[in-house]
Amino acid sequence: MKLFELVRALGGRLEGDGATDILDVQLDSRCAREGVLFSALPGTKADGARFAIDATQRGAAAVLVPRAFDFSVGVPLWTHPDARRVTGLAAALVHGEPVREQRVIGVTGTNGKSTVAHLVGQLLTHVGHRPGVIGTVEYKLWNAPARPSTHTTPDAPELNRLARANRELGGDSFALEVSSHALDQERLAGFPLDVAIFTNLGRDHLDYHSDLEAYARAKERIFEHLKAGGAALINADDVGAERMRRAAERNGARVFTYGTRSNADLSATLEVVGPSGTTLFLDGMGIPRTGYFLPLTGRHNVENALAALAAVLFLGASPATAVAGLASLTAPRGRLEPVDTGARGFQVFVDYAHTPDALERVLSTLREFLLRPAERRVASGRLICVFGCGGNRDREKRAPMGRAVARQADLCVVTSDNPRDEDPRAIIEDILPGLEHGRAAVEIEPDRRKAIARALASARAGDIVLIAGKGHETWQQVRDTRLSFEDPLVVQEELR
Q: DSSP for 88-134?
């Protein structure tokens, strides 16, 4: 596509040769090459303007900026005051608007994004679609091997490259996690959605957003990216439901609700929750009230499955076909993932829970497993939790995470998560006030491997051990180094 065609379509001021061919858009100067439009945007750590010369030396054909430079880059310069949004729109045009011919489902919320996107992908496949799935755990395009993700939501140019590749591989649909960072940074520009799912609103990422209000406003922005006639699917049980419904309606969305505690367009009544799954009754969106077994456990995972089911129903799947797909659903890696303990008599689970609400939900689910079926009141064993908090992140959620564990666990081993540049013991000191009032006995072990070993050594027959915070991650970030570390693998090594 010619540069002047982009400028004509999206506006702004062009200096230089508009006949230049643009084949791709990049935000990283190290990826610049012939035919690339380098978008020099201000970032949280550095201004892209600093790297404009580097990009042109690597072959960039043109540079897009939000304001004029006071130096020459030696190639055509496109100035646009809304350069961040225009970056995504330009990438979409350059790559032939790859989502125009695909059905796109975006998922936002504090917790559950990975699971919902993963389940949407499975249900889409079951009803005959050919989806790609993009999220925190991995990037998986249709008919292609999965690869580890680099971001929960890639930048706008990368999203369009992935969508184009998915289309070229025969894909016809796309499910993706949409983080609050992505919404704030316009990563969905040029990437319109057929369905926007809201899971819940808790506390997270306040190291980036100024406060909870700013965080919530960022989440609302997902509805700005809906196509005409698109659907907003909202968790009716969440405290943020009404706010999100109003935001969706302001943007002209068709609003549907799902839930397990409220009257909703698609609802589930839980009967039995166990380690192998949940027995429930479904009702709504063309599904008559019927009993089903869902091979996912916990109320939060029932909500996640309802969101995925509502999405494929809105896209036109028959209720009977869509519901039949529930029987084969599996959770993504690191989400209440069981670890084999042999004949030891206790259970171990690994989960990504790293917010107060997520910890509360997962621990509450596991506590239900401990109740004797005959009495449903007396625990058959103890609930042991190993967890920490990430460094260089929102300090104010550390004590609330401690409180969530203190309310639910019998024994807590406080340890390191990804300490990054912070002293692990200083992070633990921020957690401890939340553990002062609750049922949990508290032990401190900053070394995560030793903490896991301590919890396993304490476990007796009938107990449940939760290793929380890192889930699918295969590394631990200590300062500038990523050390190899996988919670499930460490559990197995320590058990041996």
A: HHHHHHHTT-TTTTSEEEEEESSS-HHHHHHHHHHHHHHTT--EEEE
Residue ranges of domains in the chain: 3-94, 103-328, 337-495
For residues 350 and 362, what is the distance between their CA atoms, to the nearest angstrom? 10
Tell me which CATH code domain 3-94 carries. Answer: 3.40.1390.10
Residue 423: which residues within 8 A CB-CB, separation 6 or more?
A: none
Interval 204-228: pLDDT, tens:
766 776 788 999 999 999 999 999 9
Considering only CA atoms, which of 87, 35, 34, 29 is closest in space to residue 55?
Answer: 29
- Which pLDDT tens digit goes with each residue over 58-67? 999 999 999 9
Closest CA to 40 of 90, 5, 3, 78: 78
User: Which of 296-307 are b and which e, b meaning 16 or more Cβ less than 10 Å from the residue's Cβ?
Assistant: bbbbbbbbbbbb
Question: H-helix or E-strand containing 243?
Answer: helix 241-250
3-state helix, strand, coil in the chain (%, to 5): 35, 25, 40
Which CATH topology does 103-328 take?
UDP-N-acetylmuramoyl-L-alanine:D-glutamate ligase (3.40.1190)
- Say which residue the tokens 């907003």 belong to: 232
The domain covering 337-495 belongs, at the CATH homologous superfamily level, to Mur ligase, C-terminal domain (3.90.190.20)
Q: Which residues pair with 228 in a beta bridge?
A: none
What is the C-alpha separation between 367 and 4, in angstroms, rounded?
62
For residue range 289-318, what is the model confidence (pLDDT) as tens digits?
Answer: 999 999 999 999 999 999 999 999 999 999
pLDDT in tens, 163-174: 999 999 999 999
